[in-house]
């Protein structure tokens, strides 16, 4: 289930072009960098 969820998140991120959003919002990028590893723990 975790692998499928990760794939779904990546697909959604691709569709929404998240890299463009992160380039305009460094604070959001920092939040995701902190929450991502915390989620895996």
Q: Enumerate how many helices there are, as a single number.
A: 3
Characterize the largest beta sheet: strand count, sense, and whether it forms a barrel.
none
Structural class estimated from helices and strands: mainly alpha
Strand element count: 0
Task: Average the pLDDT over all residues and give the rounded result.
Answer: 83
Computed Rg: 11 Å
Number of domains: 1
Termini distance?
Answer: 16 Å
Instruction: Give the H and E element order.
Output: HHH
Kindly estimate the percentage of residues that lie in beta strands according to DSSP.
under 5%
Topology:
Layout: H1 2-16, H2 18-24, H3 26-40
Attribute tags:
41 residues, mainly alpha, 3 helices
Can you walk through the features of this model?
The protein is an all-alpha fold and 41 residues long. It has one domain. The protein is built from three helices and no strands. It starts with a helix and ends with a helix. The mean pLDDT is 83.
Gist?
By secondary structure, the protein is mainly alpha-helical. Helices cover 90% and strands 0% of the residues. It has one domain (2-40).
